[in-house]
Fold each of these.
Amino acid sequence: MREIEFHPLAIDEIAAAYDYLFEHADREMAEDFRRQVEDSILRCNQDPLVYRVRRFHVRRANLERFKEHYLAYMLWGQRFIVIALGHAKRRPFYWYRRPKQFRDTH
């Protein structure tokens, strides 16, 4: 298992999506979302090559129940890096600069 790292904005995106569901749906749905994000991160870390490269060495894994949400991640050496929690219909490519930013600072 690789070390898991998060782009700082990815953490904010996961928290914001959870908070939105908690406030506008219900606690159960928000907790299901949280579990799916965690499970997806662990699954992708265990077998990261299952998903194809989209751009700049970044792969995309759609969440199972929340299908419009996806994790954008990349491998950098032995590190597994979550770049973004994206939404397919809301600014789908806003995070494209992050891989370069992350590589340049680490």
Amino acid sequence: MPFAGVKDITIEELRRYVKGKAPPVVFITGNASAMSPAETKVVRKYLDQGGTLFADPQDSWQQHFVNWANTLYPGERLMPIDNKQDAIFDGRFYFPGPPAFWSGNKSFLGIKHNGRWIIICDRGRMADGWKPPVTEDCVKMGINIISYAFDQYYSGK
């Protein structure tokens, strides 16, 4: 049973939402190869209207996702999110350093547009920690990201 307010939608279905009525955050995961130009346009409109895309691209899709995300806003590319200076690490839960679920050089990438993160991309497979056995830091970081997206959406930033 899905959590209250959580449901699966396609990118095409995201098109039907109007500004102020869309989900504040959309979580995207998978292993697809690429998004069509029509899907890209829908996502760009969603982001322009205050939404946040939280991505957990897995395996072979990760590089496709990075390449695609880097085309959304000319001149803006995914960049590492500094875990010591960014609000997503000091939200509902405080992380004084890299979260325990990061291994090696895994970190979040993001695109910041007009002063807010519009895309947050996890390269460390954090969402795997949301399934049994649940990893507490993965849940806490997910809450921070979702809270950030909601705060930004409803503050009109």
Amino acid sequence: MCPKNIKMKMPLISVIIPVYNGEDFIPVCIESLLNMDYPSDKFEIIIVDNNSTDGTADVVRRYPVRYIFESIKGPSAARNTGARVARGNILAFTDVDVIVEKNWLFEIEKNFTNQDIDAVMGVCKGINRNIWAELGQRYYEIFVAQRKSEGKNLRKIDTKNFAIRKAVFLESGGFDNNFMNSEDLEFGLRLYDRGYKTVFSSGVKINHINASELGTIINARREQSFYDYKIAQRYDEESNKEYFPSLSRWRYRCIFLKNRKVEKPILVILNYMLPIFIRLSVLLLKVPFFFGVRKKLYPVFSLTLGLATIHGKILSRSVERGYLSMNAHCEAKIFKRQKIF
């Protein structure tokens, strides 16, 4: 139990969770939040329903949490709505497919005792139901390692485990509703550009139920890359060298050309060929998968997601240049059915 004098000094924290068709995950997520060690009168749970068509609303209303409906589609709009109605001085963001550690809010609050810290990103451990979830976690941990290397002033964040002072959130304008994906990347870069200090804390821990269908993982990586490119276009060439160094590599310099007559056929061909290459790499994955050679899976898995990353940027460039409509991009799913094998 928390001593009364210490408890009185604790800030009220608002936990904000956007959800779309999350009835299968939301009970475990909410129960983990309700079982935290943090004093129950010092935090609130805000679930923002982003147009769910399943039983999410009915499930959420069984719990002592705040239910909010947001009709504007996208996680940015949902999180912004949660922040707008939040009563806490600190906003803690996570996702519906997450189980938090019991000391999650205590560790978040500990970081904010330092008045120089504006935001904090924590560790995301994986709950892996199969080999694809394990490989996805391994791929994600490269991102986490990069954040650790940045030390005390992060440029990029992940909203699965992120907290920020409400005043800073409002001053910075919150998440950009124009981004249906990678909105946390855009927000993290904006915080960094404006001089806010975001730190990485290994003590702030959650457990994420990783996607277990290969098609879902590939499509998600492609979609993230699509919006990553759109974000990069907001910055000048010098900033892109720091924030998006991959765009300076030879492969993109050869693909993204100023001469439209040369560029357009290259992009059209690649938009057709890359999904074929990705499907071929999936076939390559099947060989070690069926023979149980797990060590051989990750290099091919990484290659597959690398191809999806290139495809996403090429699609985004094609939309930007007017070679492809946004509707055509939305229809260009590599795998219509998410489960491959």
